[in-house]
Design goal:
3 domains, two-stranded antiparallel sheet, 12 strands, single chain, mainly beta, 1 helix, two-stranded antiparallel ribbon
């Protein structure tokens, strides 16, 4: 954020940063960090940033890629707090193998698979006492 800066009694308006030559060469850069809101938890462990009150060492865990597999109806995958580069959560392959249209009742859909299994009807002929399953 640009600020008005006074150097040797001269006011410079809307200055976004101040660069000061260093005696050993190079430049020291100064930025206004008064509006910074980052905390240690917002910065990765092992990294540092500067905020309104100076240097802030990070405390956010770097979990890298995260993923998992769900194998039960009530199954969940816990994603740890912190930074992650992404990942995949999927249904366990054994569950996917059994999730077929032939294993689901007609009229039922589970995870996008529509069932085709029909339940046999049972009837009894009252005169011949024959049990028929269709």
């Amino acid at each position: 954020m640009a600020q008005n800066v006074i150097i040797n009694g001269v006011t410079y308006q809307s200055v976004p940063e101040v660069d000061i030559p260093k005696s050993g060469g190079g430049t020291a850069k100064f930025f206004d960090t008064a509006s910074a809101t980052a905390t240690a938890a917002d910065i990765l462990t092992g990294k540092a940033a500067y905020g309104a009150s100076g240097s802030i060492g990070g405390s956010m865990a770097n979990n890298g890629a995260t993923g998992g597999s769900i194998s039960t109806k009530a199954g969940t995958v816990t994603i740890p707090a912190g930074y992650t580069t992404g990942g995949t959560v999927s249904i366990a392959s054994a569950a996917v193998t059994d999730l077929t249209a032939a294993n689901l009742l007609t009229g039922k859909t589970v995870l996008g698979v529509a069932g085709t299994l029909t339940v046999p009807t049972v009837s009894q002929d009252s005169t011949t006492k024959v049990l028929t399953i269709q």
